[in-house]
Write a structure and sequence with these properties.
There is one protein chain. The chain is built from six helices and three strands, in the order H-H-H-E-E-H-H-H-E. It is an alpha+beta fold.
């Protein structure tokens, strides 16, 4: 929803027939297959009693030593492709998310004080200014691959 809302707020910069899909790589072989099957069976929003309780999340060491790498691939109707890698130097759920939120707040004050009211997505509200803040202060990299 966030990606499609951004496209709308940017006057369909990605096109009116824009499509977005997500996938997760679970690794090769039987271990990767088992993880993919487990994820497919799991309703993350209905964890109920199995959900982590306060204080049961990753340790400080795990948060600080975690990392992630995401790959985004775009393809135009004419077959042109572009791939981008985004990496973070902390646990994505606890280490990076808080830094992203803080940089959005600072970006709102420093870069978008004249933004009209309403419900905005970070990309539509802050654009490249947020990318630069995340590079400089949040341990993230953004790299065009091809």
């Amino acid at each position: 929803r966030n990606v499609h809302r951004t496209n709308l707020l940017l006057d369909h910069r990605y096109g009116t027939d824009f499509r977005y899909d997500e996938m997760m790589m679970t690794g090769p072989g039987e271990a990767g297959r088992a993880l993919a099957e487990q994820l497919a069976r799991t309703d993350m929003m209905a964890a109920g009693d199995d959900a982590p309780k306060p204080g049961e999340g990753p340790s400080k060491e795990e948060r600080e030593n975690g990392s992630y790498a995401l790959r985004f691939v775009g393809e135009a109707d004419d077959g042109a492709r572009m791939a981008v890698r985004v990496t973070g130097d902390r646990d994505p759920g606890y280490g990076s998310t808080s830094r992203m939120i803080a940089e959005c707040a600072l970006c709102l004050v420093d870069e978008a004080a004249d933004l009209p009211g309403g419900v905005w997505t970070p990309a539509a509200a802050f654009g490249h200014a947020l990318v630069e803040r995340l590079r400089a202060h949040a341990g993230m990299t953004f790299e065009v691959l091809d």
